[in-house]
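Extended Data, panel c. Modelled sequence:
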Amino acid sequence: MAEEAPRKRKQRGAPNGRERMKRGYARAEQRNQEARDALEPLREGERPLVVTIGAVLSGLVGLSIIAGYVGGVEVDGERANFAQVAAPALLMGVMAWGMWRARYWAVLGFQVILVFLIFSAVFGLAAQAASVAQVTATLGLLAVSGTFFYFMVKAMARIQMPTRRTD
């Protein structure tokens, strides 16, 4: 009796797994196309606000790294060598410049850093949450970085859009 059910379904014209998957992909692609059509391309020289904020933050982080080195900050009782300071400071500076110029690769790089920050905060929260203040601060960090990430997705889509023709 159990073998008759699949045959009856096929006889009635019910879709098989492959057909259901094709229809699902088609519906998803239609929603994606509608979302792309709703986006406005950036005007010449325009930069989304979230990208501007990211550029400023990235630049400030780069400057704070240099300021810490010049100020003689020690980590675990040792002063960092120049390469340990120059690499992240240069990375953040280049990323700030790229985001200021609304470059896709810079926003994508900033999002990668946000993802590392989000994962680190989640794992730190799960493994080392020692006080209410620490939990609150970590949850705040997650809220800010997650919100930043979310809004940067749409900004990235607008940055990579070709300009539309007005025929």
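The beta strands are 74-75, 78-79. This feature is highlighted in the accompanying rendering.
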